[in-house]
Design brief:
The protein has helices at 40-47, 56-84, 93-102, 158-167, and strands at residues 2-5, 25-28, 34-37, 113-114, 117-121, 123-124, 130-133, 147-148, 150-153, 172-175. The chain is α/β, with parallel strands linked by helices. The protein has one domain (2-175). The strands form four sheets. It has a four-stranded antiparallel β-sheet with strand order 1-3-2-10, with helices on one face. It has a two-stranded antiparallel ribbon with strand order 4-5. A hairpin with a 5-residue loop joins β2 and β3 (34-37). The radius of gyration is 19 Å and the shape is globular.
Length: 182
């Protein structure tokens, strides 16, 4: 069960669950509305129309595609903010090359190597974080995970995906659901 509250600002209350308890999942959407839901899938159905009608494999593929799009959006927002704050200058050739890496299609796996140690993975060290999708890297692919200043979006499962969207700073999501155990 889910409910969507269309108030654009906090109005001091949240709708009570029909059983009198709390909602397990809450997410503020970009239009200012808030989704209150029993399941992560119900929240995702607000971001991804038709999501709940998909089988498990199609849901995973849909989350991955969405994560790749969101990663590109988050990266662009971070870059635009750094430019606006004077922390990044695309007219500087060194920073222009950095911008090329940052704006690489997020469906592509990046391999960072140390120039003096080919084949050895390097960490992302620039101040501006690199936004990547976990499913493009080990253990999901042969590419090792990039270390360092990286914001990871993880579409592997529903609750983890929503939590990683929250960690980007672009989405607001809360859950009272118990974390999945491995």
């Amino acid at each position: 069960m889910k409910q969507r509250d269309y108030h654009e600002t906090c109005h001091g209350h949240h709708p009570q669950h029909p059983d009198g308890g709390e909602w397990n999942h809450v997410m503020v959407l970009h239009d200012g509305s808030t989704v209150y839901a029993d399941t992560a899938a119900e929240v995702l159905s607000e971001l991804l129309p038709g999501y709940q009608e998909l089988d498990a494999q199609a849901r995973r593929r849909t989350r991955i595609r969405h994560a790749q799009q969101v990663a590109g959006l988050v990266q662009r927002l971070q870059l635009e903010q750094a430019i606006a704050q004077g922390e990044f200058d695309q007219s500087d050739p060194g920073q222009a090359a950095l911008a090329d890496i940052l704006t690489t299609d997020k469906s592509v796996s990046l391999g960072l190597e140390l120039p003096d140690a080919p084949g050895r993975a390097a960490d992302w060290l620039p101040q501006l974080p690199l936004v990547l999708v976990t499913t493009n890297y080990a253990p999901h692919t042969r590419y090792p995970r990039v270390g360092g200043n990286v914001v990871w979006i993880d579409p592997a499962d529903e609750v983890g995906y929503l939590a990683s969207l929250h960690r980007t700073g672009v989405f607001s999501y809360w859950t009272s659901a118990a974390p999945a155990t491995a």
